[in-house]
Structures are given as C-alpha cells and as structure tokens.
From TrEMBL:
CP-type G domain span: 62-229
The species this protein was found in: Companilactobacillus keshanensis
Pfam families reported in the protein's UniProt record: MMR_HSR1, YqeH-like_C
UniProt-listed InterPro entries: G_CP_dom, GTP-bd, GTP-bd_ribosome_bgen_YqeH, Mito_lipid_metab_GTPase, NOA1/YqeH-like_C, P-loop_NTPase
PROSITE patterns reported for this sequence: G_CP
Protein name, UniProt field: Ribosome biogenesis GTPase YqeH
Gene designation: yqeH
Length: 368
C-alpha cells in the first residue's frame, strides 16, 4: 500500500530505506504489522529506547538541524552543548548562540578519560571557555566528563540543576561527540527515570525528541545531531578511523630533535621543527606511527611511502594533499590537530605543520 505510516512513539514517518534517518523500521517488522494490525508499530529507535532504555542517534540534514535550533529558540530553557574535546572544531556548532537566542549554554567537554592523568584540568576548562568565546558561545560554565566511564556525571547534573532555574534542558551536539552515550549514562544512573522516558514529536518539525523527566515535571530533551563535513574522519575509511581514534588514555612520546628534523604522524600529518634543538612531546593514539626523518628528505619520503609505511590513510587516491601552516609558540604550547591529537612544543619554538586540506590546526597553551 502507498498509505503513509507513522511511528506511534515519536510520530516520525516510517521508512525502510535508511537506518540512519528518523522512522526507520526493518522490512520484516513492517510485514508483520501489515499482517496483524492490532500490533503497535514503533520505529527502530523508539523500540530500542522502550525495550533497552537505549538512545540511538539519527542523522538529520543541516536544514532540519537549523529548524530544530529555531524551535528551541522559541522555548524557555537551558542548552547543554556536548563537545568532543578531541575534536573541538569538528564538534562545535558555529552560531549556536545566535540560533538559540539569549538562552544560557552549559558546555560539556566529553571523553576526558582519553587524556593522560597529568593534564591540568583547570587549563583545559580555560581552553574550553576560550574556544566557546571565540565561537560566540557565552557559556555559563563548562565541565569535563567521560560519558563512557561515568566521570563527573553527578557534577554535570548538579550544574544542570543550578543553571536551569526550573526550566527544561535541551541537549545538543553534533554526531559522534558521545551525546547518546552521555544520555544513556544519565538514564542508567537515575533508575527511577528509566520507566518514565517518553518520546514525542518535536513541534513544528518532523523530528522526534526524547524527553527524560526531571524532578519538577520539566524534562531533559535529547535532540538529533548533525554531521560536520570537515572532520578528519571525513577523509578516512572506517578501518583507518579505528587506528586514529584513541580508546585508552594517550601516552606521551618524546623526541629530542636537532636542526632540520621532521616527524610524520603516519601519512596524516607532518611536523617540520625549525629550531636548532628542541624537545617535543606527541600525544596521539598509540597505534599511530611516529616517524622521524630529515626535513630535506621529507617530501620525497612522503611521496614514496604514503599509503604503505605511512598509513593511514590506506586509500591514497581519495586523500587530499597536505597544506602547510607555520606556528611560533610564545609560551609552552600545544599544536592541536582536531580528531588526531596534539604535540607540545617549548616556548619560543617554531614549527611548520602539514595537514590534509580542510582539517583544522590550532595552537593553545600547553595543558600538561
Ligand atoms: P553521538 O553520535 O553524539 O550520539 O555519539 P555516541 O554516543 O554514539 O558516541 C560516539 C563515539 O564516541 C562512540 O564510539 C563512543 O564509544 C565514543 N564515546 C562516547 N563517549 C565517550 C567517552 O566518554 N570516552 C570515550 N573514550 N569515548 C566515548
């Protein structure tokens, strides 16, 4: 039949084409329903939520995302913005403040478990505050959490209580920041909440939202994320992405460099250190090759070994050429390549960085 059907949980139009979009059901589920229409038909996402208390993310278009932010702008409430601290540029939503109006934004830096223990948490919080400011986000506060390990979730909940002033809470973030993991953690740590979760249609859009009830009758509302297109992840296949993404705390790798030396981070990035002598410390996933060579040989070396010794990337054809940018550190600093990690360089040192065109690099005060 060509009759449109809707999920009775979230109201999304049911479809069997795309798992990543709202309203997805398997063909077999749909068939069973058509044979016996006394059954209740939920989309896969609502089904998982009702049966396993598990939130799964749906992908939406930029356009729908703007509509979503616009509908939030018209409501009263606190915005909780989840950021991946390993991929700030890939997870920040430029213009967020403008889209949501004068609402308060609480910035949550997720995946803190991946940082070495020696990280100065205050510097990291300052950095997050600074980055928020640069992106026009007037954050009322910031907190570092690990959604996966459950670190600082109670602190986050206290901050939410403090800033929401009895209003609803909207959790926003791009995909892959760990927003679903975070919400699942919140649900599992508040056992009384589990049975009360509802899904309901997001007014004015075709998007569904998930409401988690708070004590005073207000809700914590999960919203779908959007994908950023200029993340490092965009240039890599799944296999390569696994090699790049850390699963355990980063371990420092120290190099003592003399005049004219270069370090390759696999085939993904190249650092030419321009000082006579310098000590640098790399913080990237342990699985990634750090290879030292003379700068005069670096170009030839890269051309020769890209996709072989220098992998990832394993797919050289699709990989963009590297673009260079120079940095001078006034104080002890980190050169950050979003989605990859960083290298700490001493005050006064100069470095030329090569990364795939479209991937962002920036400098910050050293966090260790
Ligand atoms: P969403 O798209 O924002 O909902 O993100 P997900 O919750 O699906 O998480 C994206 C990826 O980040 C998954 O591979 C998670 O395992 C991982 N992840 C989420 N939270 C954490 C965390 O606190 N620490 C670490 N190391 N990984 C996390």
């Amino acid at each position: 039949t060509s009759e449109k059907m809707y999920c009775i949980g979230c109201g999304a139009e049911l479809q069997t084409e795309d798992k990543t979009k709202p309203g997805y059901v398997q063909n077999s589920t749909l068939k069973k329903y058509q044979e016996d229409d006394s059954r209740e038909l939920f989309c896969k996402r609502c089904f998982r939520l009702r049966n396993y208390n598990e939130i799964t993310d749906v992908d939406i278009s930029d356009d729908d995302f703007l509509k979503l932010l616009d509908s939030i702008a018209q409501k009263d409430g606190l915005i909780v913005n989840v950021i991946d601290i390993f991929d700030y540029e890939g997870s920040v939503i430029p213009g967020l403040q403008r889209f949501v109006g004068d609402k308060d934004i609480l910035v949550v830096g997720n995946k803190v478990d991946l940082l070495p223990k020696s990280v100065n948490q205050n510097r990291l919080l300052n950095w997050l505050q600074q980055k928020s400011k640069e992106n026009g986000i007037k954050s009322v506060n910031q907190v570092m959490v690990s959604a996966e390990k459950g670190t600082n979730i109670d602190k986050l909940m206290r901050l939410i209580e403090k800033y929401r002033n009895g209003k609803d809470v909207y959790v926003v973030g791009t995909t892959n920041t760990g927003k679903s993991t975070l919400i699942n953690k919140i649900i599992s740590q508040n056992s009384d909440v589990k049975d009360l979760i509802t899904t309901s249609r997001f007014p004015g859009t075709t998007l569904d939202r998930i409401d988690i009830p708070l004590d005073d009758g207000k809700s914590l509302i999960d919203t779908p994320g959007i994908i950023h297109k200029y993340q490092l992840a965009h240039f890599l296949n799944d296999e390569d992405l696994k090699t790049v993404t850390p699963k355990k705390p980063l371990r420092p790798a120290t190099f003592q460099l003399r005049d004219g030396q270069t370090i390759f981070v696999a085939g993904l990035a190249r650092f030419d250190f321009l000082d006579e002598k310098t000590n640098v410390v790399f913080y990237v996933n342990q699985n990634l090759l750090l290879h030292r060579t003379k700068t005069i040989n670096a170009e030839e070396f890269y051309q020769k070994h890209l996709g072989e010794m220098l992998t990832p990337p394993s797919d050289v054809e699709e990989f963009p050429t590297l673009k260079k940018e120079e940095f001078i550190a006034h104080d002890r600093s980190d050169i950050v390549i979003y989605g990859l990690g960083w290298v700490t360089i001493p005050a006064g040192s100069k470095v030329r960085v090569y990364v795939p065109d479209g991937v962002s690099v920036s400098i910050r005060d050293a966090i260790i």
